[in-house]
Amino acid sequence: MRALVYHGPGQKSWDDVPDPRIVDSTDAIIGVDATTICGTDLHILKGDLPDTTAGRILGHEAVGTVEAVGVAVTTIKPGDRVVVSCVSACGRCRYCREARYGQCLGGGGWILGYQIDGTQAEFVRVPFADTSTYLIPAGLSDEAVLMLSDILPTAYEVGVVNGGIRPGDTVAIVGAGPIGLSAIMGARLYSPSHIIAIDLADTRLEAAKQFGADVTVNPSRQDPAKVIAGLTDGLGVDVAIEAVGIADTFEMCTRLIRPGGHVANVGVHGKPATLHLEDLWTRNVTITTGLVDTWSTPTLLKLLRTGQLAPEKFITHRFGLDQVIDAYDVFSRAAGTGALKVLLHK
């Protein structure tokens, strides 16, 4: 088969590689009908995640058709259409029993495209298939369901739920890329009074408006703190969601939050950020971090099925799977290309 292979920092290629095979009785082989590129893939390519070794097939998001299953797999069968979760779950360990699948001790967690071969390929081996794939209801498009592999549950769980958004809250989302826009979509489910999107790219701020942001701020022209002070009687926001993964944006969130508020960090950080406890310790600020667990995927599938979510609008560019190198180029220059999510289809 053909696959996108990582060869070390800054190096990747579309290569011929061996077909995946059933290794464990809980495995499934999925034919990839659609996949996409994540900001985390760019972090790997930059060398931010040194655990990813040369030769690894990248990607952790897919919609596909079951080709084969191990003898222990009972919930899916060949021919079924499934969404592949970005997090694999053994289903038996302490953390899986608590629905904290991202911390799986039994060989799961975030492993696809990171510690084992991933989804940017014609076929992928999915471990723990019963607890790491979800049957797709009839009538839902690949483009919509693909967003439930990663970005929607990530933003919902690590941003919206961890941030404790409540009706009437004022919410700042720093970073209007795919995760930030997903956080806007998820936050709207809780009826906040204002959602403020903050980003340096005007194209992404325009997208934020389409996804439900009430106010947009470009820090190169406006001071986010002044804008927020005017909306909150000087208090600051109730919830600040960091959706970039750099020190400046995390520290901005800690400056924008009100006393008693919540900072929910979703971004993938490759370098340290300063935690200004000298300013925060008296203000009762809660800071949360987290890797997505994907416990919300069944709920999000229900919301998608009933029309309360419309994630297909994330797709801005479409490529054949064999055009993955071009897709990476477009996605990596998102500020200039306007790319949100690129669809790679067979």
UniProtKB/TrEMBL annotation:
GO molecular function, one term: oxidoreductase activity
InterPro entries per the UniProt record, alphabetical: ADH-like_C, ADH-like_N, ADH_Zn_CS, ER, GroES-like_sf, NAD(P)-bd_dom_sf
Pfam families reported for this sequence: ADH_N, ADH_zinc_N
Domain Enoyl reductase (ER): 8-344
The keyword Metal-binding belongs to this UniProt entry's keyword annotation: yes
SMART domains: PKS_ER (SM00829)
Record carries keyword Oxidoreductase: yes
Keywords tagged on the record: Metal-binding, Oxidoreductase, Zinc
Needed cofactors: Zn(2+)
PANTHER family noted in UniProt: NADP-DEPENDENT ISOPROPANOL DEHYDROGENASE, ZINC-TYPE ALCOHOL DEHYDROGENASE-LIKE
Family: Belongs to the zinc-containing alcohol dehydrogenase family.
Stated name of the protein: Alcohol dehydrogenase
Organism: Paractinoplanes tereljensis
